[in-house]
């Protein structure tokens, strides 16, 4: 907020930090990867490397190595990465849940998920190595820095793996569909901001998403090579930089909020959430302290974050 509650939109630059995610696929020779992966010698699984081409400004102590842990600037830092795998015995689908791979910066293990590590390649590529089951057509959905998913406003945890009859055989089929279906999964949302909760604000590290579909053909169980998929993670929030020099403007900003904002978004694609009650679709965000090295001294980058809003919402900063 500003002293005397004046609006300061003239000093605000809003930067929408969304970008289109591009993917490419290539076969590379099989090789071992760092980490203690119990699936490394499992012949029923295929090694997949997801290479996130985000120019993450990765900082490492000493020499950059292929097995160095990821470390980035605040906005690009990855503290969690969840990779949801959906498969089908037909390329056209339907696709249902098969398994989940998880990375946590604190090394935590997530129940009913396979733990993975992140490594760095060069100066700006993060690598995730996973080994999904062979036998089906497979899609990958990646969500960084947002491990909690909501369905119809409630946290979703009911992930049940599909079952297949004879992986590698021409007659292999899905004998029991997984839960959820891909169609259902694509309706899931971020946690919804509560305007009545003072601490319900968006901070770094920022949530990001990326996906690989069309599907990858993993039906041939004899295939031993690994596949590298180049992918870009896209942020799902808008970033606002605020320009204010209190010596020139004679205004001191102490907090920032947003009127006519959205509570949350879906992930694939990123679409603002609509409330069942139209009068509750738009909210006023809780105040966030206006701080940082350049606060009220010039340009403060990343001063405020919000979920993206359509122009018709007529959102504004307060």
TrEMBL record:
Keyword annotations from UniProtKB, A to Z: Fimbrium, Signal
Compartment annotation: Fimbrium
Signal peptide from the UniProt entry: 1-26
Domain Major fimbrial subunit protein N-terminal: 57-189
CC terms in the record's Gene Ontology section: pilus
Membership in a protein family: Belongs to the bacteroidetes fimbrillin superfamily. FimA/Mfa1 family.
PROSITE patterns for this protein: PROKAR_LIPOPROTEIN (PS51257)
InterPro entries: FimA_N
Any matching Pfam family: P_gingi_FimA
Protein name, per record: Major fimbrial subunit protein N-terminal domain-containing protein
